[in-house]
Model the fold of this input.
Amino acid sequence: MADTVCADDEQQQMVLPQATPEAGAKVCSQCGTAITPGFKFCGNCGSPAIVDAPVQPSLDSTIPAPAPFAAPAPVPAPVAAPAPVPVARLIVQRPDGSTAPVIDMFEGETILGRSTHAAFSNDYYMSPNHCKLTIDSGSIFVEDLGSLNGTFFRLSHEELLHDGDVFRVGTEVLRYRALPPVDALDDGTIIAGSPNLDAWGRLELIMGKDAPGQAFAMTGERIRIGREEGDITFPDDGYVSGEHLEVTRMDNASYLIDLNSSNGTYLNIKNLMELDPATPILMGYQLYRIELL
Done:
């Protein structure tokens, strides 16, 4: 019959089922059939087993997610240096007795002068760079910078005078000159114009730069200066006390002594000097003191 199928044909059409190769198992190089472990030839087609089955990744295997992108750490902004803290204040003392702050001062050096701070710009008795004040751990040092009119401090006790020292009393400016002893010639003759044999010094009234005015010879143990009393008087100077100061001679040395005057006696500063905070200084036509904070 036409629909009868020959057993041989049915056998020829039969295909052996192919097992799905396990991961890592050998497979046939021709038909891909899984080969029983330990066998070298395919049981389906007889081809040699020489190819390893590809490892199939598991569908449920988890691929690690990439690490999240880490933003670079922010660069810290530079820290601003702390503002310097004032350690002192320059105070002006007015003629009427009132005071007012002028400038703040800091640790280290401060140059004072007509060109350094607006507070001094109209004081034409001050040089552009007049003096230097230094504050070092609470100690105050003052140094004149070769100013035309000098920097002065108020006397609180007797001060040794040196040749050429300048001091101020009221509005008067005087220079001290030490006089060497006068030696007569062998025949006893004294040179004309020599100072008195008893004079140990001379005071010169300064009228201007390098312009000495009247001179006063200094003899005896002391010379007193005042507005009304003394060996030298300035009756028209209202800032000079009745009996203001004296210059005393002791042990071949001369000393300047204030006699508790109302407005004080001021001696020029020639070298670096440590200053007591309570000691006023005179620059230009103004009186100042330093207040530690």
